[in-house]
Amino acid sequence: MPHALTLNAGSSSLKFGYFQLRDDGADPEARIVGLVERIGAGERAHIRARGPDGTVLVDEEFGRNHVPDHAAALGEVVAFLRAQRPDARFAAVGHRVVHGGPDFDAPVELTDEVMQRLAEFQPLAPLHQPHNLSGVRAAFDLFPDAVQVACFDTAFHRHHPWVNDTFAIPRKYYDQGVRRYGFHGLSYDYIAGKLAEIAPHLHMGRTIVAHLGNGASMCGLMGGRSVASSMGFTALDGLPMGTRCGQLDPGVLLYMLQTEGMSAAEIQDLLYKESGLLGLSELSNDMRTLEAAAKDNERAREAIAYFVFRIRRELGALAAALGGLSTLIFTGGIGENSAHIREKVCAGMDWIGMELDEGRNQRGEQLISTDFSRVRILVIPTNEELVIARAARDMVAERKDAAE
Ligand code: ADP
């Protein structure tokens, strides 16, 4: 059977997955997953990868300047995969593309025409979209015979009711694409599918998913479909993140422009790279570091307290938008691993029907609510790579059907 490669390009990283496709409609099997970090001129990039049983296959630093951009990183990934699996036959390459604009609500085969359309969305996601598209171009050169598929972070949210899709500014901006898109859609797609598998009756109900990682957002789902999300026009809105500010009064931007005399580029850096947990704690963007420091460091404690407060506030707002709540799901690096944050989020939430089981939470079980809790509280590790691999599989099957 052929293979699929999944690519997920961040601003200075490239995550990849090597999947075996199956022709019985079953999920693609991950054979190798890994990432290249610290891509950039003057940097020393690093490649790591593991096999399905967790075996470390590579963990190496490159020389300075060896991996100056994403195309070079992809070259290293392909060289590594070909050395590991000389028999690899890539029928498809699946790409995570952050922005699908107002139109794309499902994965799409990448053609010249689609690429042109996606390039138009670069101003909507200036830190991510250009890297995503340069990854696609590099993959076209390396795998000219493979089908190239784009999977969008925005697609899962494209059917929000209008009131959740718009801002109250003059209408012409809505028509120009200034809308509340929502992101992390691949993660929510995976979680919704997993919930349908493990608890179909819960999947039919009202669910809130808290994707808490370095990037963080929350999504309200009704019957597995996104109804509202905390992220908006860009991936800056909603919850505070590692280095991003989350929800901010737009008047603060005017203050920075007019009173502080900052340029647009300076404000962009401030909001994307210097804010969030890092900005508040003045210590780190990393939750593990903050939790370890919290005992003796008040700013670390305050940064965590703000993070938790905004999650709880968003939880109430999303429950109201859904008209109730049957399930809360934690995912992402923090949601999956920090019993402490989960406990703080759920504390005193009995008014909404949530009761955390301390033992289950500490042990990191899948179900962490008590047997009496009206709202089920679950921890489900996300798997965005698998969602991309599934789209790649479907596109390969479609092509095969069309050829027959
Ligand atoms: P990304 O958005 O980059 O994919 P991840 O989902 O990997 O991020 O999440 C990274 C975050 O998860 C970091 O803040 C990290 O500190 C946090 N994290 C990972 N493991 C733990 C843990 N055991 N306890 C607390 N936080 C953790």
Poorly predicted runs: none
**For this structure, what is the CATH class of the largest domain?**
Alpha Beta
Small-molecule binders: adenosine-5'-diphosphate
User: What does the average pLDDT come to?
Assistant: 95
Q: Compute the number of structural domains.
A: 2
| CATH fold category name of the largest domain | Nucleotidyltransferase, domain 5
Overview of this protein structure:
The protein has an eight-stranded mixed sheet, with helices on both faces. The chain is built from 15 helices and 13 strands. The protein folds into two domains: 3-152, Nucleotidyltransferase, domain 5 (2-Layer Sandwich), CATH 3.30.420.40; 185-379, ATPase, nucleotide binding domain (Nucleotidyltransferase, domain 5). A hairpin with an 8-residue loop joins β3 and β4 (46-50). The protein has helices spanning 70-84, 112-119, 129-142, 171-175, 185-198, 200-203, 250-258, 264-273, 276-281, 287-293, 298-322, 332-337, 339-346, 358-363, 384-403; strands at residues 3-9, 14-20, 29-37, 46-50, 56-61, 90-97, 108-109, 147-152, 206-212, 216-222, 225-229, 327-331, 376-379. It is an alpha/beta fold. The model has no long low-confidence stretch (mean pLDDT 95). The two termini are 18 Å apart. It is globular, with a radius of gyration of 21 Å. α11 (298-322) packs across α13 (339-346). The structure holds adenosine-5'-diphosphate (ADP). Adenosine-5'-diphosphate is lined by residues 213-215, 242, 286-288, 291, 332-334, 337-338.
